[in-house]
Specification:
2 domains, Heat Shock Protein 90, single chain, five-stranded mixed beta sheet, alpha+beta
């Protein structure tokens, strides 16, 4: 069943297929709306009837795709062009229908009167909205299928590899379920976090900059809505602090522990805080202990992290685990004799 769904999704991730589906839908709709004159339609009439609609659809579809890839200034230019087209298309359609087509021997409308012009304006607005809506639907189908397919491919890559001990397989699978259930797989930052986890679990990343680890921690925390997450003290870090090396997935591993031991709901508060005391930078992750451990938790992550810090970044950090019921905290201290290596 999953293979069939993957094949169907792959079919809908081909842009040209969705483009032709969109144009086909508009073509059928226009033919249905003009069913009473089918007997008089030639290929020349058909092109005259559908050509401007298909051109508008292609323009809207291209603009929507460009909006996803462009800078903020180019996006404003594209939106301005679309707004101008919405306004100028009324004059274009009036000229096209009542002047240009009759001059070439094709007539779809009678004599132009004020009443007919008002009705025609309304039809133009409805037609523009119809074409724009079709383009948005086609793009939405492509985007959702594309994200789903990439997420499935990443899941297959993760299942095919061996997980490193910094993150438990149980936790990663639970995170995948939560992402799928909450429809979070349609976010670029979620896919980026997934690639980061795969790189860590395959031991392709041993150490990263603090900025990278902190960013991925915030994305991970945003996926768990059943607890209150608090991020504090980012302003105390200097630019040089963000570029310091840290063991990859160390904060994610501590976050996994906090989730395993903290209660759900309002009491399941997890605090991630940076402080600077006497010039020395500290990071703390604090959570309330529920007294119940999640299934699948092995407890070897902290030991492995300590060994990695000692082996890869010796003399750079000091890690302390403190438990004072009902609070458990991890404190990471950045020592002064730090050597900057990434």
């Amino acid at each position: 069943m999953e293979d069939r769904r993957t094949k169907i999704t792959q079919f809908f991730t081909r842009r040209y297929i969705l483009f032709f589906i969109g144009t086909g839908f508009l073509l059928l709709l226009l033919l249905k709306m003009n069913i009473q004159v089918w007997h008089r339609l030639t290929m020349r009439h058909l092109l005259a009837l559908t050509g401007p609609y298909l051109f508008s659809f292609a323009m809207y579809w291209l603009a929507i795709n460009l909006l996803q890839l462009s800078s903020i200034y180019l996006k404003l230019v594209i939106l301005l062009v679309l707004g101008c087209w919405q306004y100028l298309s009324i004059d274009f359609w009036v000229y096209y229908t009542y002047s240009w087509l009759p001059a070439h021997g094709i007539s779809f409308a009678g004599k132009l009167t004020d009443y007919h012009l008002m009705q025609f304006h309304n039809r133009i607005m409805v037609g523009n909205l119809l074409v724009l809506g079709t383009a948005l639907i086609v793009h939405s189908v492509f985007r959702n299928c594309s994200y789903w397919l990439r997420f499935q491919l990443l899941t297959m890559e993760l299942n095919a590899g061996r997980l490193a001990g910094r993150l438990s397989k149980h936790f990663v699978k639970e995170w995948i379920k939560i992402v799928q259930h909450n429809k979070l797989l349609h976010r670029n930052d979620t896919l980026e976090l997934f690639r980061y986890i795969i790189a860590v679990t395959a031991n392709r990343k041993v150490k990263v900059a603090i900025a990278e680890e902190w960013k991925q921690l915030k994305v991970m925390a945003s996926c768990f809505t059943d607890r209150l997450m608090l991020f504090k003290g980012e302003e105390v870090l200097f630019a040089t602090d963000w570029s310091r090396s840290i063991i990859a997935a160390s904060m994610l591993s501590w976050f996994e522990n906090a989730l395993n031991y903290s209660p759900r709901g309002a009491q399941g508060q997890i605090i991630m805080e940076w402080t600077r005391v006497d010039g020395q930078l500290h990071f703390q992750m604090i959570n309330y202990v529920s007294g119940k451990r999640s299934a699948g938790h092995t407890g070897v992550g902290n030991k492995l992290l300590q060994e990695l810090f000692d082996a890869v970044l010796p003399g750079t950090y000091r890690i302390e685990y403190r438990e004072q019921n009902p609070i458990f905290s991890v404190q990471l201290t950045l020592l002064q004799n730090y050597r900057k290596v990434i």
